[in-house]
């Protein structure tokens, strides 16, 4: 589908495809009357959560950066 769209746009862009619209058409008339929103009763029960924290020491590697002589500042 994407390929088809790309081909049509490409043909139009290079002037090979010319699209003329003679009648723009119109949307249908729609009438909305009455109605009401549904009556909804929602009961949400949130579970009890026990959240704890724990302190830990993490060893991370050391990284040394040695810029080359040709590098920019």
Radius of gyration, in Å, reads 33 Å
How much β-strand is present in the residues? Answer: under 5%
- Flag low-confidence runs: none
How many helices does DSSP assign? 1
Spatial separation of the terminal alpha carbons? 49 Å
The tally of strands reads: 0
Helix-strand pattern: H
Largest sheet: none
- Structural class, by secondary structure, is mainly alpha
Portion of residues in helices? 10-25%
Query: How would the global form be characterised?
Result: flat
Whole-number mean pLDDT: 87
What's the SSE blueprint?
Elements lengths: L1 H12 L60
Give a quick set of tags describing it.
mainly alpha, 0% strand, 73 residues, single chain, 16% helix
Task: Describe the protein in words.
This protein has 1 helix and no strands. The protein is mainly α and 73 residues long. The mean pLDDT is 87. The chain has one helix at 2-13. It starts with a helix and ends in a 60-residue tail after the last helix.
Outline:
The chain has one helix at 2-13.
